[in-house]
Amino acid sequence: MLLAPVIWILTAIIAYFFAAKTWWFPPPINAHGIAYDQQFMRTLIVTGVIFVLAQCALGWVIFRFRDRGRPASHNHGNDRLETVWTSATALLFLGLVLTGTKIWANVHFDQPPADAIPIEVLGKQFAWSFRYPGPDGKFGHTDLKFVNDSAANPFGLDDKDPAGKDDIVSASLKIPAGKPIKLIMHSRDVIHNFFVRELRMKQDIVPGMEIPLSFQADTVGVYEVPCSELCGLGHFQMRTTMQVMSPADFEQWKIEKAQK
Amino acid sequence: MGMSGSITHDIIQGPPRPPVEGGWEGGGGGGFEGRGAFRRASFTGLFVMLAASTMLFAAFTSAMVVRRGLSDDWASMAKPPILLLNTAILLASSLALDLARRALKSRNRARFNGWWTAGTTLGLLFLCGQALAWSQLNAAGVFISSNPSSSFFYVLTFAHAIHLLGGVTALLYVDVQAWRLRLGPAKRTVIDISAIFWHFLDGLWLYLMVLFYVWG
Amino acid sequence: MSAPTHLAHQAPQGFIRKYVFSLDHKVIGIQYYFLGLFSVFLGISLSLLMRFHMVNPEAKVSWFAHLWPTSAAGGMMSPELYLSLMTMHGTIMVFFVLTTVPQSGFGNYFLPLQIGAEDMAFPVLNMLSFWTTFLALVVMVSAFFVQGGAPLSGWTAYPPLSAAGRITGPGQGMGQTLWIASIAIFCGASLMGAINFIATTVDLRCKGMRLMRMPLTCWTWLVTAILALLGFAVLLAAGLLLILDRTVGTSFFIPGGLMISDQIIANHKGGSPLLWQHLFWFFGHPEVYIAILPGMGVTSHLLATFARKPVFGYKAMVYAILSLGFLGFLVWGHHMFMSGMNPYSAMAFSVLTMAIGVPSAIKTFNWIGTLWGGQIHFTAAMMFALGFVSLFVTGGLSGIFLGQPALDLYFHDTYFVVGHFHMIMGVAAIFGMFAGTFYWFPKMFGKMMNETLGKIHFFATFIGVYCIFMPMHFVGIAGTPRRYSDFSNVEYLAPLMPVQRFMTHAAYFTAAVQILFLINLFWSLWKGPKAPMNPWNSTSLEWTVPSPPPFDNFAGVHPVVNHGPYEFSVPGAPTDFIMQTDPPSVTSES
Lengths: 260, 216, 590
What we know:
The complex is a heterotrimer of chains A (260), B (216) and C (590).
Chain A: H1 3-20, H2 31-64, H3 79-108, E1 117-124, E2 127-132, E3 168-170, E4 173-176, E5 180-187, E6 192-196, E7 201-205, E8 211-216, E9 221-226, E10 239-245, H4 247-259
Parallel strand pairs in A: 1-5, 4-10
Antiparallel strand pairs in A: 1-2, 2-3, 5-8, 6-7, 9-10
Helix pairs in contact in A: 1-2, 2-3
Chain B: H1 7-13, H2 35-70, H3 82-105, H4 109-139, H5 148-179, H6 189-214
Helix pairs in contact in B: 2-5, 2-6, 3-4, 3-6, 4-5, 5-6
Chain C: H1 15-20, H2 25-55, H3 62-67, H4 79-98, H5 100-115, H6 123-142, H7 174-203, H8 216-247, E1 258-260, E2 263-265, H9 273-307, H10 314-327, H11 343-371, H12 380-402, H13 405-411, H14 415-445, H15 451-477, H16 497-527
Antiparallel strand pairs in C: 1-2
Helix pairs in contact in C: 2-4, 2-5, 2-6, 2-16, 4-5, 5-7, 5-8, 5-14, 6-7, 7-8, 8-9, 8-10, 9-11, 9-12, 9-14, 10-11, 11-12, 12-14, 12-15, 14-15, 15-16
């Protein structure tokens, strides 16, 4: 009996925190993020209504049908009711998947435009590196045998390859606002994961695979990139930032970086 | 027997016999008909076990297909010719076991014992042949880590051999018990089960051979 | 030849054969139960250490240094120790608690009783599977004591972290090898158990026990056994391949071109880390249902018993169990949306995942339908069954977010996931075990448990688990990545620390109240009032025999079943329950 109010109170508290958004997403910084938040809210409303109804109903039957000396009714079920709620849930859940399809398709099926800025991402235990092709637009040849982390060559750039002379290597990600970006992601050792909350995007980086991820960020700012796939004892320290700059600042940064 | 029991003990003696004389008549879903129930349960257990083995090899196979499709380092290994001889031996052993069971049906104990012993011997011979195949590969410098093709060859043939070791143990057990007249036409569950398991291993081997020669 | 007397089924004499290497399914069930009880308290202890470290990463505790001289040197827990605790917590809970207690513990004890069999089909195999499980646990725990300590790659053991050896971190040497060995041994044990469960259910039902007259518990044990059979065989294959990658230098899962700790890995090339994930989750997702299905069975059984009503839609429940089992094998890819697998297959996996929400919803509706119009008796067992329903709803609905690849783009590997699976697979399943314990304890030990203590324990635990796991969803929404030993390196996590501290305190509280359960269990075992044959006025067969049942269950008189399992409050019947073995004339319905 006491269980009924306990369930109701817990339900109310949980519903309150979802409604108040006390601990919540940071604001999105692109169109995908806005679409993502809409899909999240749609799902939250559907599941939230089911959650509140189901918990309240559970509390209600516990309260209403507690043993008061009256014998229980005898029935084995109701096929019509069964069919109705089965098809209703099926439609509701399927509908939710379908409404989210476009968001997934935009991230994974659409080819990035030809002028997207390519940036190579390297994950290793427990640091991030980013490489820009430089003014020639070409990435230089790399080989593991040239890798030297302490000499700022995590990619293993071959200094004999002229295409690599102007490559820019950075420990944090800098991108221009409003421009399509194409990340080409590699791992040198174990699986890592590139995650930026504000982008509403996440992607595993699997050694032995080249994994693309394309997006665009519109709001200038600095955003954190915490590794989001267990990669070993320093997993919690594997953090960098993504700085979204105005296009002019970005060009300036590239020039400064190239001079070093 | 008590604690000296083993898995074969289960297969032979099966689940508990009915406590009352005459057994538990007819069942609802299945019910208990004394010996009939434990024979049925033993067969169910066998087929369930075969399902598990099938899943194990299906997992290895799908790993092989995926691994082969993903990489550019697959170099098909040369198969030692003795494999073909082994295949013939295994097929012959299955045939011998089947002839043995036919003899059992016609209640000819001596012929049953003869064929069953022949089948068991051929089974042991197959294991020796496999050991020979592995050592030939080793001598030719084809090790488990040489190439994904050889890795899968060793894994699959070894997993098959482990199964076969179990099978041969069952065959030997039946053989000894049959010579001691402990098993026979009236008590043949363990005989049938060992034979079916053996046929399964036979089919599995043929499947593996196709797999190696076509995709390996 | 003379028929051999069935010595295995005469009551054994002597302590060893009676209680250690017993062939009796009831003793084996109890052995599994206590193995699980040990494991659950070990798992809880590990989680408390983790929760402590997360909110006090710099704290120095002198006895840590005694326990772990290297990985907690000076008393400060190292990140690798945290990850070892996390790996072992997950592994022990999933394999040695959630897989072991509901199925092998209660299932072993009550499946033969509920279907009217004298024992499991293969008693020796049954004993072997318990002792193999025991061996697996010993090997698993021993990983703590080898050089480098326990592995830190999580219960999912993704390669290359789990495959490349000690070079990837402490614990990835001997510890990881022992971990895989233990899992392989556990697979063997589970396969043996599954063979027994299936053969017993299919062939040893007593007269009149048609499939559709089996209690729902038996249905869940049967389907769970099928899942275990197919799933553990695949995990065994995966484990063998992983161990070969580690020991003999094959490259199933290790790709080429790796450089770990400044060393070029030259002897591996071409392997696929995703291959492991596919094999692992092909087992791993059914494993979720292995953990939860028996809890669903117990809940259905108890709701009917204590609401004094037949299960609402028994057939629909059976079909729901079957379709959960079937669909459970088709949705493994939803664990891999972010893994780099083909994004088109993610769409297919996602539709199938939503489809699995349907039978889950059927179950929930039917549970509420069962309670509706009932006469609910609030025993401690019933409280836990009701708690199960509430937790199942909460944990199930967060799955609707995670099952959509679009939303998983953010939630994958955040605390939202941790909250989700702890709710549904962790605590809901454990509530099923508590419910089973309070319900069946009288039958198993012939003593009653203390109801008042049981209810206090229930309320404290129920509120406690909501306080631990609900906030995880919120910190997940705020973007907290899981498997972080320390949150101080990421700036946006700092404002969430009060929530983390709240969860840690809730965990301390909830763990502490479990002592009430232990007191109740052991006190009742020793001093509990004697249990009658059928204390709850239940209908199933285990309540037709004394508490505890005699060695051969039905003392030579074999039961004949005339009724369905949930004939409660039948109009015109003399009592509000009709035992399955009551003569057919009690009611016109069957």
